[in-house]
Design a protein that fits this description.
CATH superfamily: Ribonuclease Z/Hydroxyacylglutathione hydrolase-like
Number of strands: 14
Number of domains: 1
CATH topology: Metallo-beta-lactamase, Chain A
Distance between the termini: 8 Å
Strand content: 25-35%
CATH architecture: 4-Layer Sandwich
Oligomer: single chain
Structural class: alpha/beta
Shape: globular
Strand order of the largest sheet: 6-5-4-3-2-1-14
CATH class: Alpha Beta
Bound molecules: zinc ion
Number of helices: 9
Order of helices and strands: EEEHEHHEHHEEEEEHEHHEHEE
Largest sheet: 7 strands, mixed
């Protein structure tokens, strides 16, 4: 089974859903991509039916709080399960080197000695560099610099077992330097902040984000086949799927998915 298990779909200060993050599944192996803003990550993983002891790989796109903060409850839980002999093996975290420093500087001074011991022994950080390839959950995963102007930010691209190409684009609009990389991709996982009609109110572009129309037009131009849009405002969460899908379909001829938290998308 190759699937996306959607854990969260919201932008930074969402309270009606969890922050955008997901599990990429390859036949019972899981890559957690981003961690949201807190302890909710543990509940989302539980509620989607995945045993946390099965997660051994985490990819963090960038250091912003709504993507990073969930790593702390996750590490706290995993290191205590390691100490109890319940979690076997290591936890690998793929991120920019500045993120490792941030995690070290916060986790170590705020945790118990037994957990810190497990942290040093069993939490393995891997620096991300543009176009570097990693073997994770049975996929060759290529880190992609997303050319964010705010801080180092990485997405990734991988070929699935079914031959399809999947690209995760973090939480910034697709930079033109990536057009060739994205062109014709089967699956693009992309941020979207609000509807075009809400742009005056929410100012997505000023905040280095996109409207649904922006992403739909660009992905149409790049002949992408399926788009998954998340990292949205949570003002109208009950109608979000319907409204965003309608706008996406006006400009994009492939399949547009606007998932709610805890939805599962078959790849
Ligand atoms: Zn974000």
């Amino acid at each position: 089974m190759e699937r996306i298990l959607v854990l969260g779909t919201g932008a930074g200060m969402s309270t009606n859903c969890y922050n955008a993050c997901f599990l990429l599944e390859n036949n019972g192996k899981y890559l957690l991509v981003d961690t949201g803003m807190g302890i909710g990550i543990i509940k989302q993983i539980k509620d989607i039916g995945v045993d946390i002891t099965k997660i051994h790989d985490v990819f963090i796109s960038h250091k912003h709080i709504d993507h990073l903060l969930g790593i702390f409850p996750l590490i706290r839980m995993v290191t205590s399960l390691m100490g109890a002999g319940v979690y076997e093996g290591k936890l690998h975290i793929y991120c920019d080197k500045e993120i490792k420093e941030l995690v070290d500087n916060f986790f170590i001074p705020t945790s118990y000695p037994e957990l810190i011991k497990m942290y040093h022994e069993n939490i393995i950080f891997h620096d991300l560099h543009n176009n570097e390839k990693f073997n994770i959950i049975g996929y060759e995963i290529e880190a992609i610099d997303l050319y964010s102007t705010e801080c180092n930010q990485f997405g990734f691209q991988t070929k699935l077992n079914n031959g399809k190409v999947l690209t995760f684009m973090g939480d910034v609009p697709c930079n033109d330097k990536l057009n060739d990389k994205i062109k014709g991709t089967d699956w693009v996982l992309h941020e979207v902040f609000c509807l075009e009609s809400e742009e005056k109110k929410f100012k997505a572009r000023e905040k280095f984000h996109s409207t649904v129309k922006d992403v739909a037009e660009k992905m149409e131009m790049l002949k992408v086949k399926n788009i998954v849009l998340w990292h949205t405002m949570d003002n109208n969460i009950l109608q979000r799927k319907e409204l965003y899908t309608k706008e996406a379909k006006e400009y994009f001829s492939g399949n547009a998915y606007i998932p709610n938290d805890l939805e599962i998308i078959e790849l």
